Amino acid sequence: MKPRVDEVKYDTVAWAGAAISYGWCHSRRKTLGITVRPDKSVSVRVPLRTSVRDIRSFVASRAEWVLTVWKKLDARPTQKPQDFGRGAVFMYQGNAYRLEFTKGLRRSLHLHDDLLILAAPEILSEEDVRRMIDRWYRKQAFDAVKERSIECHHRMLEEGIPLPSITIRSMKTRWGSYSYRTRRITLNLNLIKAPQACLDYVIIHELCHIKIRHHGPDFWKMVSCYVPDYLTVRKQLKNYT
Asked: Is 128 domain-assigned?
């Protein structure tokens, strides 16, 4: 039976007294690759027919690097939880807006100058405020992704790439992904907080993956055709995790 592409399995390698647990899957790439995500999870992608023994040996060979990355991640400053009271700051398309409350006949949210104004006939609990803002973000993200995906796809018409369906959801470790099984793009909800250039870059990045599955030189050359300053945009994205 042929190994299934993208079917994730799990294993652990012991090295220098540390246990390195990782998820691995077969892919159509030609070399083994390892990634440490911001949540410290380790992901390994390997060519078809790579043996478990070779995978374990590869992870062991990169163990010191994994532990170094883990130390850097542990040293990151702790992120403060989002506040939902008056004056709390919310990002939208690269700009900061302060939360303000006002009396209204019905619940609503809208932007005015540098304010995100929440109107309601009653005093809302923090959970109600959180839910309203989350729904607002999702609505704005849906509208923006619909518009920008059509525009980005139009810019890439000469590639002959179809525009797949797109899902928006909260993602902890990725800005976007493309599934070869479902032929669907998934985008991180937090992209609506970043400038439009960041959203365009992630959409184009995933559209390029339809044609090129790996992150090799050919892939980045294709991305740079449509986002020449993609390195700058990628740095911007780090501000919106």
From this structure: no
